[in-house]
TrEMBL record:
Coiled coil: none annotated. It comes from Caldithrix abyssi DSM 13497. It comes from the Bacteria. Belongs to the SecY/SEC61-alpha family. This is Protein translocase subunit SecY.
Amino acid sequence: MMLETFRNVFKIGDLRRKILFTLMILGIERIGTHIVTPGIDTAVLAEGFRDLQNTLFGLYDLFAGGAFSKAAIFGLGIMPYISASIIIQLLGAVIPYFQKLQKEGEEGRKKIMQYTRYGTLLISAMQSLGVAIFLQSIQLADGRLAVPNPGIGFQLLTMISMTSGTMLIMWLGELIDQHGIGNGISLIIFIGIIARFPAAIMEEYQQFSIGQRGLLAEIMLVALALVVIYFIVLLTQGTRKIPVQYAKRVVGRKVYGGVNTHFPLKVNTAGVMPIIFAQAIMFVPSTLLTFLPDSDFFLSLQQLFSMDSWFYWIVYGLMIVFFTYFYTAIALNPVEVAENLKKQGGFIPGVRPGKKTQEFLDNILTRITLPSSIFLAIVAIIPAMLAKWAKIPYSLASFYGGTGLLIIVGVALDFLQQVESHLFMRHYDGFMKSGRVRGRRG
């Protein structure tokens, strides 16, 4: 049935063109991750970056698809755009002007997108300057420099190259949104993470071939991966349906409303953001140690925040729980939801409109966020546990949880939902005959 579904996908001309266009754009993006910024000794850079994997630079390299560790023109990845989007979203919670834009529909969305682009340009310029200064500081024990000819010329060239690269990635993502299928920005991050998978599999195969791990252990690892993915899918797709009724209204000779529907509250409203925020903070001690290698304080702090320590796991988990509640409060405001329901003539059965509806939604959101935050914390800690106890290389263990796996599952589900919609509208069977891939609709 799955092979027949893939054949049906390419039978639909419009869908086939969208998929091929998306693959072409992703291919162009991957080419850009291998074009190195001029003026860099790549051999020295590769050797100097080995000790930076468990720092903020390693986290940044994950989202850049490996381009940051190569100092490629796409080295900043799409992170400046994501940072600008988050900043604009946070401003919408505290500044009335941005709150007004968020409520203005399509025109407001266009203005927010314009401000996001300006913010992306500014953040890219600032970050590329910081990257240039950082690259100039890389020096090996034998005296070789990652940048043989440092100076203002190299800094300007790096700023122009990497800022242009980020703006190009943003444009490529928008092209996918307009002419391809799926969310362009998400797919670019997705393909960058997946690009690491073949190398991780080869490293694990080498350990298996030399007898370091047996066949039964490998089978158990595969089974564990499937179980983790299954529960992540449940978390990503899980919703709490709040019943909503709309009162009948008579306008002239027409009757409006009088329908029963539901308002879906996602179990994991915050998505992957809590893990990103918590991970960024947890990497601060090891990042500072790279700039202050002789500091005894930061050395002891790094040992305390080592990824294989119980202290790291507990603090990391608690921070994820905190940021899950924090980001959920920003992403979904019960006050606005209650006001919108009241304006549209809707109400929750048994709950009075207005403040009581707000308190009811806030109570439900608080309850469903707790198990979601705990599960996110467990998923984030799984890779470190496997690396310590199962002696799995962290390059492979990272695909058992954490930021990477959550992004992979979330983007894959979104892509499948959109493909399912195209198939269903043209009366083809989807990937599952029972139609359980949510988002499949006519």
